[in-house]
Amino acid sequence: AEAQAAAEHGLALLCPRRCANPRCDNFGGACEAALALTWCSGCKRVRYCGRDCQRAHWKAGHKAACKQAAA
């Protein structure tokens, strides 16, 4: 409800980020918080809005953190 109200007032950027990729720019709905997210299959600690964000975050350094967390 809050995300909808924020979007109606042009405040979608104030919604909390949910995708683990810090460079995610996928605002497919009124707010990123409304996107369906999938867990990292390795560590199960972070979620992504899609494979593009998962791959980008993996290359940006999640690979090492994921392996450490899964161990």
Written overview of the protein:
The chain has about 70 residues and is mainly α. Helix content is about 40%, strand content about 5%. The protein has two helices and two strands. It has a two-stranded antiparallel sheet. A hairpin with a 7-residue loop joins β1 (about 40) and β2. The chain is elongated and about 35 Å long. The protein starts with a helix and ends with a helix. The mean pLDDT is about 80.
Which regions are unreliable across 5 or more consecutive residues at pLDDT < 50?
none
Total strand segments? 2
Distance between the termini: 39 Å
Radius of gyration: 14 Å
* Assembly state of the chains shown: single chain
- The structural class is mainly alpha
Major sheet details: 2 strands, antiparallel
Mean pLDDT: 78
What is the beta-strand fraction?
Answer: 5-15%
- What is the element string, with H for helices and E for strands? HEEH
What spatial form do the alpha-carbon principal axes imply? elongated
Which percent range fits the helix content? 25-40%
**Sequence of strands across the biggest β-sheet:** 1-2
Name the descriptors.
elongated, mainly alpha, two-stranded antiparallel sheet, 71 residues, single chain
Task: Give a short summary of the structure.
The chain has 71 residues and is mainly α.
Write the layout of secondary structure elements.
Blueprint (H helix, E strand, L loop, with lengths): L1 H7 L29 E2 L7 E2 L2 H20 L1
Antiparallel strand pairs: 1-2
